[in-house]
Every structure is written in structure tokens, then in C-alpha cells.
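Please annotate the following for my students:
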Amino acid sequence: MGDLDRILSVLGEVRRRLVRIALVLGSMFGCMLLFELRPLQLSVLGVSIPFAYPWPSPFYNVTAQVFRAMVRWMLPPGVELLNVGVGDSIVVQMEIGLLLTAIFGMPWIVHEVGAFLVPALRRNERLLLRQVGIPATALFALGTSVGVLFLTPFTFRLLFLYVAAMNLAPVLGVQSFVTFALLYSLAFGVVFELPVFIYALTRLGVVKASAWRRHWRAAVLGSLVFGMIVTPDNSGITMLFIATPMIALYLGGAYFAGRWESQDAERRRPSAALGTG
């Protein structure tokens, strides 16, 4: 097989994987926008179990239900949301639908990407991929959950305390609210991936553990810049809420990378001693 045939074969496999991902994620996204979840109580052996079933509803759909839940959970009482632009409500539903599709479709994306990469990886790389796959997914889910359930509501309450202190009307545009809430919550999911990223690069021999410790000042600066980029407000408070756990996670990742490197050196030492003996 020539080089051109190999390239065409790889491109064909990429196309097949992308089509499979698009079909699954497109179906999920369509369901988010075309169906609502209607609650239902099931009685099993005298125990009432909450359940929900999909029902066609292009306006009050899953994204609209999630939006109402976000408003109840994240915003302080008395804050009024305004539909400033004509199509803001449609854009908001699209943004929520895309985020939910990305979150729930992530296992399928990881499966397809892994199935494409595994044949080209060495044995130690395949082993590392299997070892970090579950922790990476769990950390992403944990970080996003922490952002949605705790830090984003706390941030909104803190910022609106300043609004009340200045005797201003607590008004917020609906698109500004959703964009801030989604980006802020998703940023925590990305930040929680940092220890896995550091550990994986050290395991692969790309970056020494000592390099992570040596460049901690650059990591602090990078965390502040990342927090400034992903937070759409100008207060600086939200930037610190992102940067502080990011710095802590960086130091934790550097610690575990150094610990693995030390253990690997201990494992290699008996082999080297036997070879010299």
C-alpha cells in the first residue's frame, strides 16, 4: 500500500468516526429541542419512584426546563431577567442544548476518538489511555457539577450584593445570564482536567515532574489569564474563583506526577542493579 492509499484510508476512517459522532450528537440535540420531560410517579411494591417520559413540545422543551431550573437555583430572589434581543430566547435554548449534548455525548465522543487512536498507539500509551479515561471523565463531571451546584450560584449572589448596595435594579439580560452560567460552570469542568493532563504528560515522558514544580509561577500567571478569558464579566472576583482551584489542581497534579516518577525510578533500580551485577 502506497503513502497515498494510507492517507486516504486514514481520512476515510476519520470521516466514518465523525459521521458516527454527528449522528448520535445530532439526534440528542434534536431531542433536547423537540421534546419535554413530563414527570410521572411510578409505584413499585408500594414505593413511589419519580420518573419522566419524553413528550413532543418544540417550545417548552428540555432546554426550556433546564433554563427554568437554572434561574430558580442560580439567581437570588428578585432578579428580573429580560429578553433584550428578538431572538435571545431561541439562542439561549440552542446554547443550553449544545452544552447538554456535549456533556451527555462525551462518553460516545471519547469512545470514537479512542477507537480511532488505539491502533496507532504503543502498548504503554494504550495502558495510560485506559487508566486516565475514567478519572478524566469523572473529574470533568465533578468540576462541572461543582460549578453548577455551588460556585456559579454563589457568584451570582455575591455580585448582586454589590448591585443591592448601590441601590440599582437587579436586572439581567437572559442571554448574558445563560452565557455566563454555562461558560463559568463548564470552565470548572475543564479546570478539573488539569491534574490528569499533567500526570499523563509525565507518564509519557514528555515533561519531567521537576519541570512542573520549577514553573509554578508561570502556572499561577496562566491560571489568572485563563480565569480572565473564560469569565465574561469585568469584576475580577469570578477570575479568582476560577484561578484559585486551578492553581491548587496544578500543584496536586505536579505532586502525583512526581510521586509516579519516584516510584518508577524505584522499580527501575533493581533491574539496573541486576544488569550491572
Notes: The chain has a mean pLDDT of 84.
